[in-house]
Amino acid sequence: MVEQSDRAPLLDWEEVPPAELAPTVSSPETEDSVQSGLSSYPTEGGVRADISLNTSPARPNSVTAVSGESAHSPHKHSGPGEDASATDGEGDCAFHGLSVRDRRITGWEEKDQIVAVFVVTFDTRSGNMIEWCLPQDVNLEGVEFKSMASGSHRISSDFIYFRKGCYFGLACFANMPVESELERGARMKSVGILSPSYTLLYRYMHFLENQVQHQLQCPGQYSPLEAFYEDKKAVLPSGGNGLVTVCPTSALGPIVNRCMHPEMKITHPAGCMSQFIRFFGEQIMVLWKFALLRKRILIFSPPPVGVVCYRVYCCCCLANVSIPGMGVSVPEFRPFFYINVADIAALGTELSYVACTTEKIFEEKKELYDVYIDNQNVKTHRESLQPLLRLNSADREKYRKLCEQRQLLLYSQEVDRDCTSNEEDLFILFFMEQNNRIFQTLSELAGSADPTLTAEHVRAMGLDPQGDRGFLIDLLEIYGIDVMLFIDNPCCPSHS
């Protein structure tokens, strides 16, 4: 659990001052540390990422710069145990924040890009409604339902990540008892922002939490929100397509923003990925396969929904691949975060996504998803995918290694008295290395004189020749890899 910082007063909208934004890569010790953590990444022209997961005390801080910004993290919901793309019909949009490969190659650092700030309230007669926003002409249709999840009246506070057309949003919700018959004893509001990238939204969590309390206690006082918007607003290009142009920065910018997995920033406080895996246990290997196959994954949970939004993000991280050019022909694995019934039409056009909802009615809309997750129960109504729900010996071995590496890391941190958690990096790199190994083997076979995938190849990829056969067939088809996959009888090959 990361304690909420009290540093930012109500009117202080600068969550992380400029001097604190850059990780301490300027010091020789940190530079060596970051470089050691990145040395195994491929260059732009490289083919293979031979990622080391050495957790010995000799390399305890290989990627500590990634979590160096968490000092002022405001998140209060830290664990599952608390349980406390397409255009979306609004234009052809590019989604920032998901592709590790693209971030590493372009070499730019994200700047403040707030395109809207808003206040949503619950009216006893009209329901959810937008009370105030800047700019006044921004299209916020549907945001009043995205930023105040169905069922939120039962809880006192929450935070919600969501998607709105080209943009991603973060809203903080709060419910305050009041002695008012008109408000039926409760005042409920959400304060939120929109940005073209979800990776920087965490910076403003504490400010939004403060502001929603401010709006509950002093309704109608918007001057802090106005000042925040003027300070952080994005400059939209003149083309009118609603997208924010991201400007390259100096090549001397923070190494971690260019080369590591910058979308990790959403996970502040540290612990999101490790809690995600502990929550699902061995089932994480089932989710990993569905993620690699780019399936439509829908997670149901009653409020609060903030921790479930983290699970959406974590599912997306399972499919990371750092081999250049791999996966360009498959649907992008997009996080929708929180959805409600107003998103049904948009989901109907998506080929691949991960989303969460508090509305049980979605379980009946089987045409909208391939995989449905209720608490820790992972299921699919598609007969062809049901064999993937069964764990095999290779799955259990991978999970054992994952847990073993985590224990080694924790031991290393305890021995070195290092309080900085690197579990997120370990888990991200574990699955990326696994994915790279699979696609590297398949790519080399496809380009060889004998593109035959044998049982030995399958075992070398960390898969089960029998239990993962169906998974491999689907993988070859989806990624368009021309490899011959043999069945038990070598006289009867099946071409995939």
From TrEMBL:
<dbReference type="GO" id="GO:0005085">
    <property type="term" value="F:guanyl-nucleotide exchange factor activity"/>
</dbReference>
<dbReference type="InterPro" id="IPR018626">
    <property type="entry name" value="LCHN/Anr2"/>
</dbReference>
<keyword id="KW-0344">Guanine-nucleotide releasing factor</keyword>
<feature type="compositionally biased region" description="Polar residues">
    <location>
        <begin position="52"/>
        <end position="67"/>
    </location>
</feature>
<comment type="similarity">
    <text>Belongs to the DENND11 family.</text>
</comment>
<protein>
    <recommendedName>
        <fullName>DENN domain-containing protein 11</fullName>
    </recommendedName>
</protein>
<feature type="compositionally biased region" description="Polar residues">
    <location>
        <begin position="24"/>
        <end position="42"/>
    </location>
</feature>
<feature type="domain" description="UDENN">
    <location>
        <begin position="19"/>
        <end position="496"/>
    </location>
</feature>
<dbReference type="GO" id="GO:0005737">
    <property type="term" value="C:cytoplasm"/>
</dbReference>
<dbReference type="InterPro" id="IPR051731">
    <property type="entry name" value="DENND11/AVL9_GEFs"/>
</dbReference>
<feature type="region of interest" description="Disordered">
    <location>
        <begin position="1"/>
        <end position="90"/>
    </location>
</feature>
<dbReference type="Pfam" id="PF09804">
    <property type="entry name" value="DENND11"/>
</dbReference>
<dbReference type="InterPro" id="IPR037516">
    <property type="entry name" value="Tripartite_DENN"/>
</dbReference>
